[in-house]
Amino acid sequence: MKLKIFIVLSLISISILTAQEKVSIIPQPTKLELQKGYFVFNSNTKVWIDPNKELEQLGKYFTDLINQQSGLKLNATWKMTREIPKSLIRIEFKKDFKNEEAYSLQIKPNLIKIQAKGGAGIFYALQTLFQLFPLNEKQIKVQCLKIYDEPRFQWRGAHLDVCRHFFPVEFVKKYIDILAMYKMNRFHWHLTEDQGWRIEIKKYPKLTEIGAWRKDENGNLYGGFYTQEQIKDIIDYAKKKYITIIPEIEMPGHSLAALASYPQFSCTGGPFEVLNHWTITKDVYCAGNDSTFIFLQNILSEVMDLFPSDIIHIGGDEVPKDSWKECPKCQARIKTENLKDEHELQSYFIRRIEKFVNSKGKKIIGWDEILEGGLAPNALVMSWRGIAGGIAAAKQKHFVVMSPGTHCYFDHYQALQNEPKAIGGYTTLEKVYSFEPVPSELNEEEAKYILGAQANVWTEYIETTDHVEYMLLPRLIALSEVVWSDKNSRNLDDFLYRIKKHYEILSTKNINFRIPTPLPDENEILISKGTKVTFNKPIDNSNIFYTIDGTEPTINSIKYTEPLIIDDNILIKAKTFLPNGKSNTLSSVHFTIIDSTMNGINYKYYEGVFDSIPDLTKLNPIKEGKIYKLSLSEIKPTKESYAVSISGYLNIENDDEYKFYLTSDDGSKLFIDGKLITNNDGVHKIKEASNSVYLTKGKIPFEIQYFNKWSSGSLKLEIESSQLPRKNVSADMLFIN
Ligand code: ACM
Ligand code: ZN
């Protein structure tokens, strides 16, 4: 009898173990072995560290966090008793790790052992350990396991533009906290721009007296800056989280705020105002004036004194050459320096600055435009206009940070429907996760020049700290795995499973993030009658509420509890609400029943790299066929650059004036009855064009021509009339003949 009970009990305990043995660590550790049992923190738990200042700091950081959650009063001490405590956490440096940032973490029922070569590794081990903690529970119990972990890349970065919109010191620290949670180690701080100068420079006080402030449309001043004291405080804060801050001082372009303060360093002499809208200005630093270089060197000297980073970002991107072409001093410089043109003048500018920075024992990094006209001898390159700049630089044996717009620009849209206004682009969580920083064009030797990758958060359309967090997360979590984990261990499904816990961690820490939507990112979904529609619910304890009357869902709408059977055309609007009642995304999907009256439209798909819509009559389509709704997802493009033609008939219900909205990335044109109605051609980010036309009742022939150059494309056609509120052209309006 006794034996029987024992067997039953052990069976139960085994089944409990398997249920809880999954851990959700991001980024995925190099080696992870789960073991049976738990370590439970209690009042007798001892935290032992070696006698070392850095370990003391880390020990305090660790016990503070434990005590905060558990109410315990643990202390990290190096006074070891002869007797080994029954519950011990041992944190120690160990020389034999090859990788400076590597660590090992071993959790047994009576012992947690953390080892690393230096503080960074210990810090990362603690981040891993924190991710194992239960949420919202006082008792901290962690799964037994054994981890060896090291990063794949040494540059794991995120950038923040504090110029287009300004963010306070406290938020910059929160941003650093978020990076640290995911073992990111570089914070690229974009401090100067046309729209604002954000760093106090003692020698040139007007930079912040004038340059930090712009007048908005109503004449109100907008702006702000960080004092050197505040910057020191932030640098110190970041250091404790093992994050190096890379300051960016833009030159020769993106510098109007500086020129508004000191116009004598421009080609024309000004006067200028700090820019209050998002364009690229032609006014840049004068490259023919030696005093410009003295000015910049004095600024850089203060910057280099402040920031311990051995790499300084000098911008270098998007420099219009207009003012240099007109400026006698710049033209004289081109002659005396034997330069071919203004591109070589830009290269001269960067080389001269590089020489100065190098003389102080530091290096420069610049955006990939610094390749044009010849790369400065020791410069690092940040590849943003795709990966081509990064490839070229690595082949020239220059170090590279990959940050292509396609995968790393977190100012891009995260979905195509119902997102807050963004600058354009379309970069989903999945797309970020798919990023490979080392291009296949590089051989093994060249690949060593790829230092890592970085997310960029430009803030033209991001005004609040909440919105910064929304754009950063969850995409940063995906990038952290790209830059930390083994390439071969990457697995999207497994990542999407693990990230669930992270949504809860972020909520608990009051960090905003884009909440996953219940339905796919589509405006219209074609289904057959009686289809069962299951909503996506990746966050435990969240609730989904929906409406079928077109209104915005609230927590008083219909609660989703089980899959819906769809028998009729229906518009479903649905929102995911976190346990705290927060929601920030909306699904809005027309489900259209496929029936016999629906006969679709024709499409033709062409491949090629175009800058505008090509003459499609001169090209051979790669494929053609019939689709039932007006959507690129139906056509399934197989290349990044392509063109399509979509044609058929639009069923018009009434004689009326109709307005068409054609939205695309890149170019598109709408023809009705053979006439060009809306022209939205050219290489551009998501952009809308609209025109009106009078139509009579009946089936009207139409054609859309569209092309996409690199990156992800998008295409949408909406219609509106006096009797028809603005809506997507839906499948039931389309006919093949
Ligand atoms: C950039 O996005 N202009 C570097
Ligand atoms: Zn000039």
From TrEMBL:
PA14 domain location: 596-733
Top EC class, one word: hydrolase
Entry's family note: Belongs to the glycosyl hydrolase 20 family.
GO biological process, one term: glycosaminoglycan metabolic process
A single cellular component GO annotation: membrane
One Gene Ontology term of the molecular function aspect: beta-N-acetylhexosaminidase activity
Name of the featured protein: beta-N-acetylhexosaminidase
Catalytic reaction equation(s): Hydrolysis of terminal non-reducing N-acetyl-D-hexosamine residues in N-acetyl-beta-D-hexosaminides
